[in-house]
Amino acid sequence: MHKWILIKGMILNPQSDKSCEFIKEGVLIxxxxxxxxxxxxxxxxxxxxxxxxxxxxKVVDHSDSLIIPGLxxxxxxxxxxxVTSMPKDNLxxxxxxxxxxxxxxxxxxxxxxxxxxxxxxxxxxxxxxxGACYGSIHSHSVDAAFKYFKGDYFVGNVLMTMNSPxxxxxxxxxxxxxxxxxSAKYKKNYVVTPRFAPxxxxxxxxxxxxxxxxxxxxxxxxxCETKNEIDWVLSIYRERKGxxxxxxxxxxxxxxGLLGEKTIMGHGIYLSKEDMQLLKKTNTAIAHxxxxxxxxxxxxxxxxxxxxxQAEKNKLRWGLGSDIGAGPFVSMLDVMxxxxxxxxxxxxxxxxxxxALYRSTLKNAEILGIDQNTGNFDLGKxxxxxxxxxxxxxxxxxxxxxxxxxxxxxxxxREEFRQAVTEVFYExxxxx
Length: 432
Ligand SMILES: [Zn+2]
Prior knowledge:
It is a single chain. By secondary structure, the protein is α/β, with parallel strands linked by helices. It folds into two domains: 4-70 and 376-430, Urease, subunit C, domain 1, CATH 2.30.40; 71-330, Metal-dependent hydrolases (TIM Barrel). It has 15 helices and 16 strands. Strands 3-2-1-4-14-15-16 form a seven-stranded mixed beta sheet. A six-stranded parallel beta sheet has the order 8-9-10-11-12-13, with helices on both faces. It has a three-stranded parallel beta sheet with strand order 5-6-7, with helices on both faces. The two termini are 18 Å apart. The site of zinc ion has 5 residues, from strand 5.
């Protein structure tokens, strides 16, 4: 292996919602450490002079391609790949008719392993190098993800102890045993994952809170995705001891000790004032999944559009996720495009591609707690990067927003995003 790798390309280095360095004729310099490469330097083409005489230097030419940091997906169900193309109607019906029967298949370990292998390939193919992920209720769905996925993944088995079909339900004891066992095994990479409050009882959720404090991992669940779901969850809990006076969906999780800065709640489309206050107070993050929430004609569940402006006004942390299989594609590029297009349609100009890229890389790294090591090209971070398909940019293109606009304009169908990734480097090694 070479000590140094020099990659020529058009570099995009996200910093915030509004700022992303764009170096059109750029170079990235990777340096090999003990077993992986880190970002040693980056800048304009003239930087080559400083490195070209280095012994053991490999030069890779992607001059015509945009190079972005490895993408991070803040919310996806790896066991739902086969549901992506099944008919969608609304959340609760879709869970019952398609998702739960599909997840039940993962009981079979062999099947589970071969699906994980395939899914891992899909993630890499689409430039995704980490994220927060849901398995099925089966412990081997967590084992298989950790075994096959390449990148910074945080994975949990969904907990389902009530209001679930007979073929996909656990006793409290089974759920608690799995929480203990898997959190001890995977420590901070384990995610306590109540599917959502309607299907996970309060005792198991409280146990999850304790387990998370011990292993210092993450917590993930779903919150306020549709109005029906909110009515349903409140009607369930108001009949349960200790929750009679509950007034918001978030408060149910809060009373079980599940909200906090290590918690990622999926969706949050219909947050009440009280929800918003609780999330703010506890510094809970939201995973916004625009392709999953999109209208049914756009292959989503038609749940609505997350109001990120409102969330930001309330200082909520949020990032983007694919929500496979309610989201139809693994590609975070597709998610970014959907975020921008859906928001522009309602006149929301703050939804830029620069913002979408930041919320699919550095911001997600921050929420996952890995931004010291990944999320952008700051010096010393691990060399995780995605080379996009070649693009001719005219001399007038000078900003990250213009460059990203050109890239997305050149994609003619959503299926094309998968082919829009030409090469993926993980810790400096090509894995695509
Ligand atoms: Zn989900």
